[in-house]
Amino acid sequence: MQAKGGGVVQRARVAGTSASRRAQKDPAWVRFSLTAFALIVVGLLIVVPISNVFAGALSEGIGVYWKNLAIDADTLHSILLTLTVVPLALAANIVFGVAAAWLISRFNFPGRTFLTALIDLPFSVSPVVAGLMFVLIFGLQGYAGPFLRRDGYAIMPFVVAALVVFLLVVAYLALRPMSPHLKKRGFWKIHPVVAVLGGGSAVFFVLVVVQQALGIWPQNTSLKIIFATPGLVLATAFVTFPFVARELIPVMDAVGPDEELAALSLGANGWQMFWHVTVPNVKWGLVYGVILCNARAMGEFGAVYVVSGHIAGQTDTMPLRIEKLFQEYNLPGSFAVASVLTMVAILTLFAKSKLESKVASVTTDPPTEASPP
Amino acid sequence: MSIVVKNVCKTFGNFHALDDVSVEVPDGSLLALLGPSGSGKTTLLRIIAGLEIADQGTVLHNGEDITEYSARERRVGFVFQHYALFRHMTIADNIGYGLRVRGVKKAERMARVEELLHLIRLDGYGPRYPSQLSGGQRQRVALARALASRPSVLLLDEPFGALDAKVRAELRQWLRRLHDEIHVTSVFVTHDQEEAFEVADRVVVMSEGRIEQIGSPAEVFEHPANAFVMDFLGNVNVFHGHVEAGKAVVPGLEVAYPDYPHEEARDAAVYVRPHDFMIERAPNGASSIEAVVLHVNPAGSRAKVELRASDTAQLINAELTEERFAELGLKSGDRVFVTARRARVFVPNYAI
Fold it and tell me: Is the ipTM of this complex over 0.95?
């Protein structure tokens, strides 16, 4: 009786699955035409143009390709300039991105949502406008322009002193002894607020005076920011500003603060907690953000175009050089530089798809295995 | 080492997580903070650990005021609810981390790690990663990590909350035995009264940021200080009525209540635990509730009987011993008389 009943149920289930499979499947012509359509679109819009870049670059032979890249002094300079500007902008964005992501995901403070929105701002501002902004501040007609032109290096002692004081304060906070008894001895007896404010301003003052007295920086010389490398770095950093922070915030949110708190309660100081726990936990997210940031920084055109002044052999980065060669009807030359950027893009894509699975495995909890013995 | 918490207050925005809380944890004892979610028990634990800063009040550690100390200066072992093991470190590195950041030499550290792995019965698991362990194993690793640098105080936040019932029961007994072996002053947070009673020496019942009662498990269970504690600790039947002239009167029941000798009636509630009911086929003269049996569940060591009072239609849960249940032979629809062997009376806003 029971076996019979079971058989009926089973047969019904088999019939059900095959029927539903048939129902879920579209007719063959729909499947094939949709697939073909997708392939044609991808081919026309992506594969053909990209192959064309390489075909154009190599159209006059590999010798010309090499000459276009390595012998042309202006092209070589543009490659070297990109290789200087991009790492500097990346370094600035890594430091800022990690700090901002940590602040936003670990602390609740007034203006937190505002800061989150502000980080996204460079995404929505047109790069040309971003470039123009810097021209308006640092350019000749800008607010700081006349001063920078007259005696620009006068600000350097202050910049250097501020950087040194910042590093010293971070070191002081990271190295403060954990034992309350040690704290009552010598230098550590000073109240932290007094130590940071008093010590910081004293060091700052001494450093500024020493630099001015020794005359390390040239006097009455103009400091060029616009139409020079510093402007390029500023513009590139601004445009690629959100990438690292935006990648890190969700990863840090997913990891949560518990492991960091555990490290602290086990006796780690802030520095140890950061390097032993925070960084290993978010490293794939960080690498992923850096890769995206790098790709965007290499290819940045609009903002850089405005602040660079487009001087061949001086302020032309790779994308600017491509445009200039193209305007000069030097198609193989322009395609040669373009092929280098394209290869960087393809490499980025590979690295990105490799890393995506690793980032995903951080944000989801690892599976639980069998029960304990 | 003993911990004393004095007049601690903590608010999150408008929410009063802790409202003037004072607790004393004697040296070497195992104390449970018991309460429903949102009662502030975890906040109190985190304040003791230094992971949260109290708005007011002081925390003393063996007489020393540690209110201003940061988490790493307090040298307490803290076990997180979801373990918070370092996922990129091996089990051995996890356990040894506290020693590593305190500058203990590698050889000494490895010896201590081996010792702890043996203590938590995970010998040979050192090279594995936390994701390769089950929940119960991870919980024991978290405990070993907290114990590695020999803290004077061990704090556990819902230590068994995320485990299944069987592993939980095992770990509970194991924690009790461990505490008897190493005698470290311990505080743990739980919302499970059975867990608190089984493991702890003393229980602190909390609700809405205040302490409702402190005492040994037996004291708290036998002499609940108020209606909340009575209600929170296990099943209870509540009958609403009034008190007057030394007795509490609810429909069908009369309970002596000498604490209220006044003639003027006051609202009151009578609380009866299911196992304190007696069921009779016929009225025996004492005050009793006439009721109809709705449902019987003879599974388990005690038979559970669900009844409905005939005149008030109130549902009553009663528990009978197996023998008594067999003797009565109850089934649904039977008409019976229910009397309370023991009952507690609580008068709202009236000191008992």
Answer: no
